[in-house]
Write a structure and sequence with these properties.
Blueprint lengths: L8 E2 L5 E4 L5 E3 H22 L10 H24 L1 H6 L14 H19 L3 H26 L13 E2 L13 H23 L2 H4 L3 H20 L12 H17 L10
Parallel strand pairs: 1-4
Antiparallel strand pairs: 2-3
Length: 271
């Protein structure tokens, strides 16, 4: 590694907004989920009031409860099955120690898809329409979640000597400065993807004319953004076929996105 500059910023942020005991308090990571869900509910309400959604305003709370359950269960189960399956065998109770962290975005997406399927049957709203709605607001949660990852000092990047590199004390020795890859992902998976999805939702008729296409575009765009982020991120589990697990699992998102985009059009009926 080339000679390092004299100083890099050392990560020393506290993961707690308010700490009651050593391991109990209000964590920024928990707040990121709250902010993500509140932002999603606010946008869904705007859609309903603008007449661009078949999800009535009085059903948004029910829809959000279903998606929250899907995110939490899917993300938690996915973290173990997709990244650390051996941990469930050696320490099954670790699944319930949520304060130790452990959520997987790919698992969360699968959990949300199952929740949407159940809600669509219950509310008699087309699954693909609900998928368009939730994917148009999902990047807000990704944005807040990646910022929380940075605050937690986890999921750090690969060693580098760029001027904005950060030293993460929790990273394995020797303590090299690393890419703040969490912030890169916050920008690509969160901010830019949210701007793109909102632009597509409000500036086109795609949600009404071709249900499912917007969800397909989200899956493709997220997979691309995730693959870019993985270039700078230190793999947090063993590789699969030479790819980081985040990149490998995103290949399935690409396949799903293409399938949704290529589906025959069946426009929504006006209400």
């Amino acid at each position: 590694m080339p000679a390092l500059p004299l100083a890099f910023w050392v990560h020393h942020l506290d993961p707690f907004l308010i700490r009651f005991t050593e391991n109990f308090g209000i964590r920024y990571y928990g707040l990121s989920y709250v902010l993500g869900f509140l932002t999603a509910a606010w946008l869904l309400t705007r859609y309903a009031r603008a007449g661009r959604s078949q999800l009535a305003a009085d059903r948004i709370a029910d829809f959000m409860v279903a998606t929250v359950i899907g995110v939490m269960l899917g993300g938690r189960i996915g973290s173990f099955l997709l990244y650390h399956p051996e941990q469930l065998l050696h320490d099954p109770l670790s699944f319930f120690r949520v304060w130790e962290g452990g959520m997987a975005s790919h698992g969360g997406m699968l959990g949300v898809a199952i929740a949407i399927f159940w809600f669509s049957r219950s509310a008699r709203i087309r699954f693909l329409h609900l998928a368009d709605l939730i994917t148009s607001v999902a990047p807000a949660g990704l944005l807040f979640g990646r910022i929380a990852n940075f605050i937690n000092g986890e999921l750090w990047g690969k060693p580098t000597t760029v001027a904005w590199a950060v030293i993460f004390p929790a990273s394995p020795p020797p303590m090299f400065p690393r890419h703040p890859s969490q912030l890169y992902e916050a920008a690509f998976e969160g901010l830019l993807l949210l701007a793109f999805m909102q632009w597509r939702f409000w500036r086109s008729d795609v949600v009404r004319a071709k249900p499912g296409r917007l969800a397909g575009e989200f899956l493709l765009a997220y997979a691309l953004a995730r693959a870019i982020g993985e270039v700078f991120r230190e793999p947090d589990a063993s590789l699969i076929l030479g790819l980081s697990r985040g990149t490998f699992y995103s290949l399935f998102l690409i396949a799903g996105g293409l399938w949704l985009i290529l589906q025959p059009s069946r426009p929504l009926e006006s209400k």
